[in-house]
Amino acid sequence: MAVWATVFLEFWKRRRAVIAYDWDLIDWEEEEICVVIAAVFGIVIYRVVTVSTFAAFKWALIRNNSQVATTGTAVCINFCIIMLLNVLYEKVALLLTNLEQPRTESEWENSFTLKMFLFQFVNLNSSTFYIAFFLGRFTGHPGAYLRLINRWRLEECHPSGCLIDLCMQMGIIMVLKQTWNNFMELGYPLIQNWWTRRKVRQEHGPERKISFPQWEKDYNLQPMNAYGLFDEYLEMILQFGFTTIFVAAFPLAPLLALLNNIIEIRLDAYKFVTQWRRPLASRAKDIGIWYGILEGIGILSVITNAFVIAITSDFIPRLVYAYKYGPCAGQGEAGQKCMVGYVNASLSVFRISDFENRSEPESDGSEFSGTPLKYCRYRDYRDPPHSLVPYGYTLQFWHVLAARLAFIIVFEHLVFCIKHLISYLIPDLPKDLRDRMRREKYLIQEMMYEAELERLQKERKERKKNGKAHHNEWP
């Protein structure tokens, strides 16, 4: 995806150059955040409280799937908060931009665009970053759990890993947001136009509309929003970021984005032709600050995917086990047979008698094994209770941590080198366009040379004529 993002931007440069040349805009120049953190913290508290409530629910279906139920409801609530805050952020961005008092309209648009993108990007992705990199990282361990207000345990990841929670978060948010955007883009103008037609019928009678000229019918359509295509650009940029930044955790994101864009192209065409007034054209050399934002997202996607693969997934722990601790340790192999015993090696031993009073199990497990259980297992790399440092980190933990950091550094440098190589190999201008521009420049220079030569010849003839006339005045 990092390579694709780079190729996409490089080929967009080429396409932009062709469009700018066709419209004669090559040489044209135009004349001239605390609420998000509070919302994320609220979602975290909701997840912490809800998972405990669902775990003690009377219905076995909800009790056995408390983690999934908590994640699903939290995502839906988070989506509603995102939609509400988007309205607030637009007004805040407009206020802050006006307070800056930009000198030109271009500077005003760039400032407003950057603020709106940052507000909505953080609003959309803050909870996703929390799940990817913070969920379950600071919960403590059995017997020493960290608690919120000394009451609720901090939420942990699903037993299969945090990727499940991250995948659910991205899938639900992406589907709901794209569905809502398409509804608002088409449904809102439809409702407004229907209401306008209803008012016209009430004022002039049902037959009066038939005699309206076409320009008056067009005038009764919805005007284009005050920011032009800003909302369309913003939607695509946010979708680009959502698709590339966490693609390692949700590989279906590009497919969902493709299906949405296929549908949205037709919806936008219908909206522009039948529901909106004809927009006023304006000259633009390129997409402005949006391209810089796309490049920034491409760089951020490399970093986040490196952390997702190294920290959120089990890719690195499995490799460390295969090469260092598994049956094939020291043999340079990492096949399926080398993973035998991995689950057991990823679990630590805990003595049940070391539980806190508030965390003691309701039964001693004798109904399963016939005798009371003395030990249980939990997912972590910690020493057993009878070691010199009970529940301290094992050597395997530090090996995994070092391997994760090494992977992040190597992965980022490798991908960035590939990105820069691709950027260097793909020229910004297609060869045929470069040839056309050179020929056009040559023809312009030739025309200027011919015009200058013609002017000099004309002046020479006039000087000869004036000189001859002047000579004839004297006897």
UniProtKB/TrEMBL annotation:
Tell me where it resides.
Answer: Membrane
User: Where does the Anoctamin transmembrane domain start and stop, copy by copy?
Assistant: 1-32, 35-440
Origin organism of this chain?
Aotus nancymaae
| Transmembrane portions of the chain | 35-57, 69-89, 117-136, 237-259, 287-311
Arranged from A to Z, the UniProt key words for this protein are: Coiled coil, Membrane, Transmembrane, Transmembrane helix
One GO cellular-component annotation of the UniProt record comes to: plasma membrane
Quote the PANTHER family the UniProt record gives: ANOCTAMIN, ANOCTAMIN-4
Coiled-coil blocks: 439-473
Tell me the protein's name. Answer: Anoctamin
**By which gene is this protein encoded?**
ANO4
